[in-house]
Amino acid sequence: MTMKLSGFILLIALAFVAVLLPYIYTFSLPLSLRSQDWANFGSYIGGTLSPLIATLGVLGLGITIYQQGKQLDSFSKQLNLTQLENTIRSIENDFISCLNSRTFEFEGQLYTYEDLLMDLAISSAEKSIPAKASLEKNRSKLSANEIIFIGIIGAAAGHLNQLRIYVNQHYELSGNNIISKYYERKYKNAHDKLIRLGYLDGDKGWIRA
Fold this sequence. Notes:
It is a single chain. By secondary structure, the chain is mainly α. It contains seven helices and two strands. Helix 2 packs antiparallel against helix 5.
């Protein structure tokens, strides 16, 4: 903005010089002491510079409008990014809350579903999770615990998929994949497990750049 303003001022100065030099060179060397000569000079300046000043004024107004438009676009984009980031945090909280809503026991240890999906140290507990396809085949014979499990894991998978969608939208809008990389790494273990178990589509991933 400062460089454009400097260029605009320089353009005005050059316009003055371009108008003054021919007059000075032709009529005013040496400087006249006659009031009529100065009156003629004033008429010349007014008649020549007025259109130039008006043109430059319109040009300056156009530059101002252009700059304001860019600032408005930037503000609108930042507002959209802020809204997306708030939505991402809200979905992430729902995802974690869903996983921590109940616990289950495996090999004598009590775990939350967040432990099961997020913690690599207990990845062996994944064996206790039935695949989605096997549960759907025996839907009529499901136990109460299996029904609860389907509800929790299914809801968690839905939250994680929503999280992926909004994070990818953030990347497309911002052109910066830092957030996408962060969430991909943070939830890679959970994402991979849910894909293996059939609760997420393996073809839909996080945007990489």
